[in-house]
Amino acid sequence: MGIVLGGMTEVCSGMLPIIDGHNDTLTRIFSEDGGGVSAFLNGDDGHLDLPKARAGGFAAGFFAIYIPSKIKNPADEPARSEGGAWTFTPPSIDHEWAASETARLLDCLDELLSAAPESLGLCTTVDDVRASINGERLGIIQHIEGCEMISPDLRELPGLYERGLRSLGPVWSRPNVFGTGIRFGWPSSSDVGPGLTAAGKNLIVACNKLGIMIDLSHLNRAGFMDVADISSKPLVATHCGCHALCQSARNLDDEQLRIIAESNGLIGCNFFTGDLRGDGRFDTDMPMSRMAEHIEHIVTVCGIDHVALGSDFDGAAMCDDLGDASGLPKLIDLLRDRGWSEHDLTRLAYGNWMRVLDATWN
Ligand SMILES: [Zn+2]
After folding, report:
1. What's the gap in Å between 114 CA and the centre of ligand 1?
2. Helix axes of 221-230 and 254-262: crossing angle, nearest 10 degrees
3. Ligand 1 centroid to 146 CA: how many Å?
C-alpha cells in the first residue's frame, strides 16, 4: 500500500518533523518522584516534554508502558562507567504487579491526553500519525515494552488494543512467559538463551491479526529469528544500535540488519551512549558524530529505506551535544552537513515509519 508523503515537509516551523521509535517518558513522569501531567505540559529537566518536543520537531513517538524491575540494591548493578567487560540481567517481575502498574500508567496517560486535547493526541491510525506530522498535535503511539502484564493465553490483549495499544516488545531485558530478553552486557552478544515460547509464538500471530507492531528490541537472537520466521509484517527494531560499531549485547549484527531490511522493515537507531560508544562505557561526553556513524552503518547495510530514529529519551543516557528532544535539529543538521539529501533526511525522520505503520496497522 502506498502512502502520500507530499506536503508533509513544511511543518513544525520549517523543521523536519520526526517520528521517534522509543521513549520511557510515561514511566519517568508518572514515577513516585516524577512531575506528572504538568511536568510534561510545562517542561521539566527530563529528555522529553511538550516544550522540548515543539522545539525539536518531535511530531510523534512510541511512548512505552515500561514496568522497571525492582532492583533492591543498586550496588548489585555492575560499575559500567569504569570500563571493562560486564553483564547484568535485571530481575523478573510478576504478572500481578505488572498488570496493576500498567493499569495505573494507562490511567495516567488518559489524564495527560485529556489535560491538553488541543496539543496531544493518541495515534491509533496512520491518519492520526500523518496529522501529527502535519503539525496538528504531538502524537502519542502506545507501546508496551515487556509483556509481563499479558497472560500466556493472551486474554488481556484485545482490551489493550481497544485502549489504544499499537506496538509491543514481547520482552524487556529479562525472561518472561513469552521469551528471553537479552541481558545487558559489553562486550557481549545477543545469542543467549532459547527462542520464543509457544505463548510467545501465539503472541506474534495475534499481534499480526490485530494490527499491533512487534518490536524486536531487547529480544535475544533466537527470539529475533522466531519472529522473523513467524511474523507476516515488516520487522522492526525500534531502538537499537549496530553491533559492528559497539559490542553491546542489545545491538544488532549485520545479519540481523539485513533480515529486517529484507522484510521491508526498519531499525530505529538508539541514541543511548552505552549502545553507541565503542568502549562499553555510558559516559555522555560522546561526539554527536558517533550517532551519525551508527545511522550511516544501518544505511550502508540496509539502504536508506530501512533506517529511522529511536531515541530512548528518558530511558537512557544521551550525548551532551544532543542533550534532549530539543536537540533533534542538531542531529539533522549534522547529517545534512555530512552530505545527506533532503529526500534521505525525510526518509529517516518519518517517511520510513509511515511506510511500515501503513503496512502493519492496516
Ligand atoms: Zn528499551
Report:
1. 27
2. 10
3. 9
Asked: is 18-361 a CATH 3.40.50.280 domain? The reply is no
**How many degrees, rounded to 5, is the angle at CA 84 between CA 78 and CA 88?**
30
CA of 251 to the centre of ligand 1 (A): 11
Peptide bond into 187 cis (omega under 30): yes
Q: At residue 149, what is the residue type?
A: M
Domain assignments of the chain as residue spans, ordered by start: 18-361
| Torsion region of 280: left, alpha or beta (phi above 0 gives left; psi -120 to 50 gives alpha) | left
Taking the centre of ligand 1 as the mean of its atom positions, its distance from the CA of residue 250, in whole angstroms, is 9
Q: Tell me, in angstroms, the distance from the centre of ligand 1 to residue 239's CA.
A: 7
Those residues whose C-beta lies under 8 Å from the C-beta of residue 155, and which sit 6 or more positions away, are none
Q: Please tell me the distance between residue 7's alpha carbon and the centre of ligand 1 in angstroms.
A: 33
- pLDDT, one tens digit per residue, over 272-318 is 999 999 998 899 999 999 999 999 999 999 999 999 999 999 999 99
Q: How far is the CA of 233 from the centre of ligand 1 (A)?
A: 21
User: CA angle, 193 as apex, 191 and 196 as ends, to 5°?
Assistant: 105
The CA 327 to ligand 1 mean position distance, Å, reads 20
214 alpha carbon to ligand 1 midpoint, in Å? 13
Query: Is the Cβ–Cβ distance between 264 and 3 less than 8 Å?
Result: no
**Taking the complete model, does pTM exceed 0.90, yes or no?**
yes
pLDDT in tens, 116-171: 999 999 999 999 999 999 998 999 999 999 999 999 999 999 999 999 999 999 99
Q: How far is the CA of 173 from the centre of ligand 1 (A)?
A: 8
Eight-class DSSP state of 190: S
